[in-house]
């Protein structure tokens, strides 16, 4: 199925590695142009080199999404190069989890700025460019713990839940501008985060992920693949999903049924 993404312009935060980079690979194969935002300039350069083979435009902006000026720099680049945005993917963030009593104010604040305020700012600052598109879409990448909060999942689960509320609210507020706002709730999907987790234990990545899938009782019996996330994300960004807004899809192998 042609997703009709050729020539579309998509900004991805957290785009230098992991799920964000995986999505970028899928988008450029579909003919889209991408702007990757991340903190590590070297990783961004490497990502751009890999993606350039697809023949679409790949832009990078080193930026910390917790900083409003950095975010604006990325959006200014999109305006200068493209004149509009067809898609905004709020993907920046990593899992943090601890008990309520042991989570410090600084940890709450850091997670708030990264996982919620950055989404709010990114959407607000992108609105002028999104309104110039004939099919604009926003995608918030969250976690299944937006709906199901296990033990010692703070502060991450709290701000993921707030991100879900933001998605629902904005889908109504921005409907008059034809801006669709959806979310993906991610379970255990292969990413750099899980590679680091395996390395910390000295285990083989595949073995470590298989053990995690068994421990978490994932019904499909395995950790998800990056491209499985990317395929769903690309669909939600495309005009093939033109009647979907305010939707939150679980990409979790059925995990939310047993959490």
From TrEMBL:
<dbReference type="InterPro" id="IPR057326">
    <property type="entry name" value="KR_dom"/>
</dbReference>
<comment type="similarity">
    <text>Belongs to the short-chain dehydrogenases/reductases (SDR) family.</text>
</comment>
<dbReference type="InterPro" id="IPR002347">
    <property type="entry name" value="SDR_fam"/>
</dbReference>
<feature type="domain" description="Ketoreductase">
    <location>
        <begin position="8"/>
        <end position="165"/>
    </location>
</feature>
<dbReference type="Pfam" id="PF13561">
    <property type="entry name" value="adh_short_C2"/>
</dbReference>
<dbReference type="InterPro" id="IPR050259">
    <property type="entry name" value="SDR"/>
</dbReference>
<dbReference type="InterPro" id="IPR036291">
    <property type="entry name" value="NAD(P)-bd_dom_sf"/>
</dbReference>
<protein>
    <submittedName>
        <fullName>NAD(P)-dependent dehydrogenase (Short-subunit alcohol dehydrogenase family)</fullName>
    </submittedName>
</protein>
<keyword id="KW-0560">Oxidoreductase</keyword>
<dbReference type="GO" id="GO:0016491">
    <property type="term" value="F:oxidoreductase activity"/>
</dbReference>
């Amino acid at each position: 199925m042609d997703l009709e993404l050729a020539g579309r312009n998509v900004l991805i935060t957290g785009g230098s590695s992991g799920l964000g980079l995986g999505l970028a690979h899928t988008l450029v194969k579909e003919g889209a142009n991408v702007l990757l935002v991340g903190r590590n300039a070297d990783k961004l350069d490497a990502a751009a080199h890999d993606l350039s083979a697809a023949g679409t435009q790949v832009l990078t902006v080193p930026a910390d999404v917790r900083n409003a000026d950095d975010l604006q720099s990325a959006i200014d680049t999109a305006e200068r190069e493209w004149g509009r945005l067809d898609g905004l993917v709020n993907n920046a963030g990593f899992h943090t989890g601890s008990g309520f009593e042991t989570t410090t104010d600084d940890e709450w604040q850091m997670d708030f700025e990264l996982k919620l305020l950055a989404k709010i700012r990114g959407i607000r600052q992108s609105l002028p460019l999104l309104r110039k598109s004939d099919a604009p879409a926003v995608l918030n990448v969250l976690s299944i713990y937006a709906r199901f909060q296990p033990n010692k999942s703070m502060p991450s689960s709290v701000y993921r839940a707030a991100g879900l509320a933001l998605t629902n609210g904005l889908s109504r507020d921005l409907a008059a501008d034809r801006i669709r706002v959806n979310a993906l709730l991610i379970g255990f999907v292969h990413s750099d985060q899980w590679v680091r987790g395996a390395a910390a234990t000295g285990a083989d990545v595949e073995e470590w992920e298989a053990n995690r899938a068994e421990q978490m009782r994932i019904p499909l019996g395995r950790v998800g693949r990056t491209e499985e996330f990317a395929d769903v994300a690309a669909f939600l960004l495309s005009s093939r999903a033109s009647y979907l807004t305010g939707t939150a899809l679980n990409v979790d192998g059925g995990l939310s049924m047993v959490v």
